[in-house]
Specification:
By secondary structure, the chain is an alpha+beta fold. The chain contains eight helices and nine strands.
Length: 262
């Protein structure tokens, strides 16, 4: 129903409703949705609701960028706008609510951080294996291992098919840290999972002078630097898959990498 010769294309709101689209918003702003996906947004100019001019990229909606940035908090998006000056991210609409992010969250009372020490890079590195996932990734992995620097909160993530590969992964990441940062981690903090309590890993830490600390059993909050990112990554995965109209469950590893990268 597009008339190319018109100076301005027109859209029938009645036709949109007949075809299953829904309209949200109030005042000078509305969005047209298909299910949970925002198709386009329009702003009232005093006479008509007008859709902003579309450039070569059709990704002009706030909701698109909210999903592309793995459903991060709107306040974080506002702080990050200057990092994406060429992306034309619009301002947050009034009464914006992310149902995908809400569904992905679960709460637990926070634990007060009692550590008062001056943190130094790679002192310690926190790690906590996550998995198994019910569907193997494209690379046939079913676990991922995050490693987080306590001071900078820089994170690395590695994928594995078996828990028994954890020792090799830790050795490889230590070698990478030594090469890139010219520094050996002063310590590692993990839970008491069997993948971290091995004779081989104990000997490796001893040879490097790395102190291996364990969090108390049944208290994941004691290793919160690793547990909290795992929760954030899990929420991101659920939010990304929840907001996607179609998706391949085997892409969970790519989603983890996307979350950690962002």
């Amino acid at each position: 129903m597009h008339v190319a010769d018109l100076a301005h294309p027109l859209i029938s709101r009645r036709k949109l409703r007949e075809k299953g689209y829904t309209e949200f918003g109030e005042g000078d702003y509305i969005s047209i949705n298909k299910g949970t996906r925002v198709v386009f947004e329009a702003v009232f100019d005093g006479n008509l609701f007008k859709i902003p001019d579309i450039s070569h990229s059709a990704h002009i909606t706030y909701d698109f960028w909210h999903q592309a940035l793995r459903n991060i908090a709107p306040s974080t998006m506002d702080k990050s706008l200057h990092l994406y000056s060429n992306a034309n991210i619009p301002a947050k609409p009034i009464n914006h609510i992310c149902s995908s992010l809400g569904k992905s969250k679960m709460t637990r009372p926070p634990r007060t951080n009692t550590s008062k020490k001056d943190r130094k890079n790679l002192d310690p590195v926190h790690s906590d294996l996550s998995g198994p996932f019910p569907v193997p990734s494209e690379g046939n992995s079913v676990y991922y291992i995050p490693l987080i620097d306590d001071a900078t909160r820089v994170a690395w993530v590695r994928f594995t098919r078996q828990k028994s590969e954890t020792t090799k992964i830790v050795k490889d990441i230590v070698a990478e840290m030594e090469l890139r940062n010219h520094k050996t981690p002063a310590g590692f903090q993990t839970d008491n999972g069997g993948e971290y309590v091995t004779k081989d890993l104990k000997g490796f830490f001893a040879s490097k002078g790395i102190i291996h600390e364990f969090s108390p059993p049944y208290s994941p909050e004691s290793n919160g630097v690793a547990e909290r990112p795992n929760r954030t990554i899990g929420e991101s995965l659920r939010a990304m898959f929840e907001s996607a109209s179609t998706y391949n469950k085997k892409l969970w590893a790519e989603a983890v990498l996307t979350s950690v990268y962002i």
